[in-house]
Design goal:
With 128 residues, the chain is of the alpha+beta class. Helix content is 49%, strand content 26%.
């Protein structure tokens, strides 16, 4: 329904209180996901792609019973996609979501991720 007499929010209202409300809402959604991660575990997913200018972007998501949530994106253009570097990035995400909640890694690139997967598995084996 269009309300012609309803004033538009000011620039300040959009940037501060309305944005803060949306950030709080998103953080609450993430907390619900984190509860499920602790109860049932979760999978880390990564997806890399290269644009027309040969820049590499790697997206990281976490999937659980309640759904999939985007966590972060990194620009991988400055480093070669090697198993060691991908392990470093995946390991940092495993630590962020907590080691005990982590179940598996799902990736789009088998060749470079094999070493990263082996390193993650080796790290987990040494923890237990």
């Amino acid at each position: 329904m269009v309300r012609p007499n309803l004033p538009a929010p000011s620039y300040h209202e959009i940037r501060v209180p309305l944005l803060n409300k949306k950030v709080e809402y998103t953080e609450n959604l993430l907390e619900d996901h984190k509860l499920q991660w602790r109860k049932h575990g979760c999978s880390i997913m990564s997806d890399a792609w290269t644009d027309q200018k040969q820049r590499c972007l790697i997206n990281f998501l976490v999937s659980s019973l309640v759904g999939t949530m985007f966590v972060k994106s990194i620009d991988g253009s400055n480093f070669v996609k090697t198993g060691e570097k991908l392990f470093e990035k995946l390991n940092s995400l495993v630590e962020e979501i907590r080691e005990e909640n982590f179940v598996q890694v799902i990736t789009d690139n088998w060749s470079n991720y094999v070493l990263a997967g082996k390193l993650l598995k080796e790290k987990r084996t040494h923890l237990y």
